[in-house]
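Lab meeting minutes (informal)
Scribe: AK
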Amino acid sequence: MKKTSPHRTGRSSQGLALFERQPLRAIAWIVTLLVLGALVVTPMTLQQQLTLSIGVFVLALVINRAKGRYASLAMIFLSVIVSSRYMYWRVTETMFMDNPLDLLLGLGLLVAEIYAFVVLLLGYVQTAWPLERKPIPLPEDSSTWPTVDVFIPTYNEALSVVRSTVLAAQSIDWPQDKIKIHVLDDGRRAEFREFCQQVGVAHVTRDNNRHAKAGNINAALKNTTAEFVAIFDCDHIPTRSFLQIAMGWFGHDPKLAMVQLPHYFFSADPFEKNLDTFGTVPNEGELFYGLIQDGNDLWNATFFCGSCAVLRRTMVEEVGGIAVETVTEDAHTALKLHRLGYNTAYLALPQAAGLATESLSGHVGQRIRWARGMAQIFRIDNPMFGRGLKWPQRLCYVNAMLHFLYGLPRLIYLTAPLAYLLFGASVIHASASMIFAYALPHIFHANLTNSRIQGRFRYLFWNEVYEAVLAWYIFRPTLVALINPKLGSFNVTAKGGLIQKEYFDTSIAKASLFLLALNFVGVVAGLWRLTWVDPDNIATVWLNLAWTFYNLVILGACVAAANESRQLRGAHRIALRIPAALHFPDGHSLRCHTYDFSSSGLGIDLPADLSAEDGAPLEVALFRGEVESRFPATVRFSRGKRIGVQFEPLSFAQERALVQCTTARADIWAARWGNHPRVAAHKVIGHIASISMVGFRQMFAHYYHASGRKLRRLTGGGAEPATAKKPS
């Protein structure tokens, strides 16, 4: 039987079958490029350009009502036409400037726009046709299944963070003689060694910490022998079905080197926590794991992400183990595998979940490492050059690396209108009406098309909030890495920490505050120009003012993100409704359901009101299929039909059973994946604007209280007041 290509499966194979024929594909490309070229370079008057722009946008709105991938491709085609026409006009018609200041600032904006245009095109290549690969069943005879070493690298994380991952890994449904769990402890801690001995897993150490996580894994590779290696960050708790979902494709494709599954986070990241968007707005990582990785998979360009992945040992060893030349060892390893002609795969089924970074400063530090590492790869092992990669793979890798160069372009966008408002510099040498006729269609089409493609995984405008917060901090390390890729070191992302009180992170917010002040000055200058200063360019003034007001909305949300909310729970609460039972000391029992859980307790919905004293002992029963597990607990609160219970100290067997009934359930994370509804653009910008207003209030409240404290110190006043609460 002829095997189906792993990169042409499911619905995608039906949609792309026609284009497998070389003559038809060549003709389609020639016709497309001819039509595209003619539409892009044909000169038009203002009226003709407006007519074309309106007609094409109406056509896009009509196409957007249709379902299916081909409608999305048609919208991409229209977007490419409009955006290419805008960029051609920008380069050929708007850069004739006599004033050196105008030319310098204009070139800066043009570079930022070219960067955004290239990223837009490469993004379309990545996301136009996600593969949507499905799992392949394993052979019925489990004795034929391969051996697997599970690696759980750790360095300075608390044992409380790691223990659930270890117990869940022990619960993976795989023949016990074919799986071995290894805790790779680069902290060389006695409590970890004792824990590993008690639960029956290998505690692996080395006598140095060279090359950080990559070196830790490579040392373990030299001392283990299983055919495959599954890697989990120490806070990523695998479900029992992880290997059965991931391993089927290895038997189907002998050249498959790696299968990657999503990183899913059951705790709120700093943006979600500080902006109160957890569960209502797709977070920063959902676009990558929900869409981009699935799109990469079509082109055999899935990236290794360092965790929630299975690798074939022989192929990883062939490339010298996990890459150590850069601080993004995972993506670099995947690049090396692809250069040797090996395949990778992505399954968009969350089968593990972990902790997001707790603080914005920690989040920024993590992104700095990613940005530095991708810039290092771009510099020392550029995917555009060298052997082994096909062109779609090169483009996918280049887009991933270009993404982390957004720092300077984002800073330019946040300050570009100030060039005219403050200095009268024309960064685009054209009338306001011509800018409207060319630029607005480009912006509207790109947003409409991306909204259709990304809708469930990224809401419009939110990427600008994320990038504006990080832009200054990303810009510096990427620039340094491009100049000297050997500079910089690996930093471990802290997980499982607490934030004892609310505070305004002025250190992280200082770049946003500076940009905010500049844009406020720009608004004042613009209003001044609207009076008698610039009567001949009122439309230009209004255009730049509108841009500045938009920047203020984005920067206000950035300020709100820097107001750290408290994080007092060491064990995060996770919503989960499953059957349970309460067993009381007097012998009677009560059937009920959980509504949330953590490693320390449960929230329970009761069928009727129940009065229970705080601290009253009981047992909670949870179920795994037909198997019942009981856990000793005490009542923490009782309110009508709801009670909360806290677990008493559990044995390792009970802890393992608790993990099996909760975080290791095969269905728990997949049911929450990609369920965000599509939201209209005006509602999204309205939501960001409301968050921005909160940010302004938080900023003023912070500086009001800070000024009061400083005044009291200078005048020898009384004790400082308690930290101000976050404004609602």
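Next up, CB showed the second protein from the same session:
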Amino acid sequence: MTSVRYATPLKSPVTYPTPFAPPFSKVSTLLNTSIKYTTYSLNPEATATNDGPYGQSAYAAMWASASLTYLDSPPFTTTVSPTTIPQSELAFPPTLPVVPADNDDTTKLALPAGFVWGVASSAWQIEGGLQLEGRGPSVDDSIGALPSTANDSNVNAMFYYVYKQDIERLAAIGIPYLCFSIPWTRVVPFGTAGSPVNTQALDHYDDLINTALAHGITPIITILHYDLPTSVPYSDPNFSDHYLYYAKQIMTRYGDRVPYWVSVNEPNLEPANNALTNILIAHANLYDWYKNELRGTGKITMKFANNLAIPFTDSPADVAAALRYQDFSLGIMSNPMFLGQQIPSTVLHTTGIQIDALTKAQLKLIHGKIDFFSFDPYSAQYVAAPPEGVEACAADPTNPLWPTCVVTSNIDASGWQIGDASSVPYSFIAPQYVRAQMNYVWNTFRPAGVLVAEYGFPKFGENLEPLDAQRYDLERSIYYRAFLTEVLRAVNEDGVNVMGALAWSFIETNEFGTFDSHYGLQTVNHTTFERTYKRSAFDYVDFFHTHVPGS
């Protein structure tokens, strides 16, 4: 006979002994008194009037200039009232039938008390309603306006209006942390410093945070997750001013209730040019403002992308190539932030690179303005030197491998794939390299702690399966179990202070133009917008209940 086990809901609400910043009523004077607070409503058919550079006509003209056409309209335009999750949905699946090899030695190992575990998301990928409630266009919107309703991010998972139900579902299954992003162009539709601020957005995210806390979920906020305003590229020399204008709005209002902030998501994926310096300066200026003027006591980080480079062979050339790859991936921004050191010479000495060495003043500003290391180590990859050699490639900007000048592969020297592959080229079940990933950042940059801010596995062809098969996502469960088992070893055997792990994502997302790469711990029916837990959600929660004291 089998017995049914049910998920344990969170204890509500989250309360803090002391707030992480003064309440808005006491720090509102930190914001410029001349700022205009308003609302916008998009009506492309309205007759244009001369209502100034930031009026309703200018707002409509801004969207018109973006030349975007969404084939589907959002199915609802008001917040959906939540319903209690029936117990039948919270029944655990059958016991996980497969565990990592040699797992017996980890059954009694523990992660640190207070381990930050939960789930992550990004606004553009789940919110929908891109032209509603005053949001302005972002650089990501051109991806969402594709000639297929299946790829239309204007509809998406509709988290913007279904957030109360989603919070209810996370709390019911017992997930204690939610990382979400706030879109710059919802708060500041025109994007630039001095332009009006949208009060509907301020009210919306205030309620989202309060709803999470009331259900026992601690919020983690990403300030910028790819969706830049079309008017403010990273290369703008005034990027820092525009960014701080927006960021101060949300930090002054929500800082008392938010313990962790992510300034920018994966900026190291940008081309190696001086835009990266603009981002570093903006981050450092925000850090100083938050700590010194707002007097915030929360933690601030920047989130990096990195699938660790593993030398293809043990030859000196391949080892050097792997280190060069890491310099371009992580060292280019982490050297100045964590070590107070210059951008790696491998980057600066690459012929034709459009990035200048940091000045002494810039290094002083940037160094130490980060509280812990945060990255998205989905998998790993093999790296080899190019046939012509790294130096020859680095001296030739026309070389197709320039500027990194390395050859990447997911096949090892014996001809074996690095691990079980997902539907995209950067996710594999490859736990054999997780400890190396943790040790690399811990020993190289010597941070106070390491947060795995995203990790996940989009099961191949999952979107083509019937719902019952989609729910039984065994590969995703194996991915998380195997990954986290190696994190356990890194913590207990190597002394790495891994402080948390956030799964990508809590529901299926628009992966920048497609819904086919299903990362989510829950399915989304794009007709009814009903969510369904997958088995990976239960196995994920179960792992932390086993290995985190007090969970």
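CB comment: The CA atoms of residues 40 and 134 lie 4 Å apart.
No objections, moving on.
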